[in-house]
Amino acid sequence: MDTLIIRGKVSKGIGEGEKFVRLPWVKKQIIEKIGFEPFHGTLNVRLAPEDVKLKKKLKKMPSISITPITGFYPGKCFKAMLMNSQECAIVVPQVPRYPPNLIEIVASTNLRTKFKLKDGDTVEVKIPA
User: Under a CB-based contact definition with an 8 Å cutoff, are residues 45 and 30 in contact?
Assistant: First the structure.
């Protein structure tokens, strides 16, 4: 089985991922569809231009849908592995004008704390294809 590897730099978010993951209907779907209870925040990762091209390949890969309630946009998730050791999921919000060079990662733990990450650190995410 092939693996898609995406690298990027940790970036400060605006708190929207945290609000989203805390929503009961989102949390429930992540537990049921992805298999873990999400930490109440996401790790924002900015991609270099060559990795933005790899992110586009995700559109052709099978995804896990987060089905919204009225007033919210859907999201697509992809099971992944961060830094070769942490089960996680890439979340791609289906929001108009969502930055093409950004991915958000959700996991069962605080990824910044676990990996001692700070803004600008490079991380690697592997997505089974």
Answer: no
Spatial contact of 114 and 89, defined as CB atoms under 8 Å apart = no
User: What span, in angstroms and rounded, lies between the C-alpha atoms of 33 and 35?
Assistant: 6
Helices (H) and strands (E) in the chain, counts: 4, 7
Task: For domain 3-128, say whether CATH 3.40.50.300 is its number.
Answer: no
pLDDT tens across the length of the chain (129 residues): 588 999 999 998 766 667 778 889 999 999 999 999 999 889 999 998 888 888 888 888 889 999 999 999 999 999 999 999 999 999 988 888 888 899 999 999 999 999 999 999 999 999 987
Tokens 């993951």 -> residue? 21
Please give the structure tokens belonging to residue 47. 């991609």
What pTM, to 2 d.p., does this model score?
0.90
Amino acid at 20: F
In the chain, where the domains are located: 3-128
